[in-house]
C-alpha cells in the first residue's frame, strides 16, 4: 500500500475549488500555477473559462493547500492582474483524486451556460 496517498502520514487532506478573475488569460497563468503546485506539493487542475477567468481544484495536506491558496490570492503569474478570487468550501478527503496538478483545455462555451 502506498501510504503517501492517505492522510495519517501526510496530514489532513482537503480539497477546494477556486476561480480567479482579472487579467488571468493569455498571461501564462496556468503554466505558473502548475509550477507553484509542484513547489507546494499539491494536486488538482486548472483551466481557462469562456468568461475569461481561470478555475480549478486544489487537493493536498491542509498546510500545503493554504500555501497554494495564498499564491493564487497574492501572486499568480508575474504577467497577471488578479482582481478577485473565489474559493469554494474546503472538503476533507480520504485520499487523493489526482496524481499531479495539471493545466486542462479551455471550457467549451456551452459548459459555461
What does this structure look like?
- This protein is of the alpha+beta class.
- It has a single domain, classed as 2-Layer Sandwich (Alpha-Beta Plaits).
- It contains 4 helices and 6 strands.
- The chain has helices at residues 7-10, 29-40, 62-74, 109-112, and strands at residues 13-23, 43-48, 54-61, 81-87, 91-92, 101-103.
- Strands 1, 2, 3, 4, 5 and 6 form a 6-stranded mixed sheet that branches.
- Helix 2 runs antiparallel to helix 3.
- The chain starts with 6 loop residues before the first helix and ends with a helix.
- Residues 1-10 and 109-113 have low confidence and may be disordered.
Summarize, please.
The chain is α+β, with helices and mostly antiparallel strands and 113 residues long. It has 4 helices and 6 strands; from the N terminus they run H-E-H-E-E-H-E-E-E-H.
Topology:
Blueprint: H1 7-10, E1 13-23, H2 29-40, E2 43-48, E3 54-61, H3 62-74, E4 81-87, E5 91-92, E6 101-103, H4 109-112
Helix pairs in contact: 2-3
Count of separate structural domains: 1
Task: Provide the structure class.
Answer: alpha+beta
**Topology as a string of helices (H) and strands (E):** HEHEEHEEEH
Basic shape: globular
CATH level-3 fold name: Alpha-Beta Plaits
Q: How far do the termini sit from each other?
A: 42 Å
Can you tell me the residue ranges where pLDDT is under 50 for at least 5 consecutive residues? 1-10, 109-113
Quote the beta fraction: 25-35%
How many strands in all? 6
CATH architectural category: 2-Layer Sandwich
Major sheet: 6 strands, mixed
Tell me the name of the CATH class.
Alpha Beta
InterPro entries: Acylphosphatase, Acylphosphatase-like_dom, Acylphosphatase-like_dom_sf, Acylphosphatase_CS
Keywords: Hydrolase
Domain Acylphosphatase-like: 15-105
Organism: Cloeon dipterum
